[in-house]
Design goal:
Elements lengths: L2 H7 L15 H25 L6 H11 L1 H6 L7 H6 L2
Helix pairs in contact: 2-3
């Protein structure tokens, strides 16, 4: 089989895009809405902090909330399966 014929005979198959057991469409939509809300708040915090003088504690709080490390730390998708199953 030539490369050209292999390319034309290969069919693309999307990965399994099913929701996890126990997560229905409504729950998924709520999670997505919460994530969008958190992202919007983080963006607003970052924008409001630009060019303004804040006291040390307020600036620390904004930095903490905008931190990529903190976002990763609270990302439930990064938790092990045992922890995730306890929250269902």
């Amino acid at each position: 089989m030539t490369a050209a014929s292999w390319i034309h005979s290969t069919v693309f198959q999307a990965p399994n895009l099913k929701l996890q057991s126990g997560v229905n469409g409504t729950r998924f939509d709520k999670r997505l809405s919460l994530l969008n809300s958190i992202d919007a708040q983080r963006t607003a915090l970052e924008a409001s902090a630009t060019g303004k003088t804040y006291d040390q504690h307020r600036q620390s709080a904004i930095s903490l909330l905008a931190s990529q490390k903190i976002r990763q730390a609270i990302d439930v998708n990064r938790a092990d399966e045992k922890t995730r199953s306890q929250r269902r």
